[in-house]
Amino acid sequence: FLTGGSADGSDEPSGEAADTASPAGETSVPAQAEETSSAESEEINVYDLEVGDCVAAVTDGFTVQTVPCSEPHSEEIYAAVTPPEGDFPGYEAIDAQAKEMCTAEFESFVGLPYEDSMLHVNLVIPSEERWDAGDRTALCTIYDPAGETTGTLADANR
Q1: Which of 27, 75, 124, 135 is most buried per CB count within 10 Å?
Q2: Contact by Cβ (8 Å): 71, 116
Q3: 109-139 pLDDT tens trace
């Protein structure tokens, strides 16, 4: 999916998959997976995504098309995590911290440990500009590498 910035310091997201890691840091996971708040498809900025949103398509580096999770979609936002405070540590450090935290939240969402699941994790991390403005939230997305899914992946146990 998307990460929050590029090595050149621009606000342009870039794609990268998550690795298996151990728990760390503050997290926020929904008590139950919910449908996206919109009853219809809409295009929004990646930084406006929220836990429970389902993404049908990335239309450009900053814009995604969301749909109700009951419709076919490529990814679902399953958790929001906050890497430790401090000065901007660089995209690689934020990415590594967020991957570790998202992987730690995976089992409680899916029902299986990440390493036992066929599902994968990606991230949306804040850009340097957003970090400096106080937005340190990273979003955890889940997807099936075999293709689109319909319905939430909460408690999918796969």
Answers
A1: 75
A2: no
A3: 999 999 999 999 999 999 999 999 999 999 9
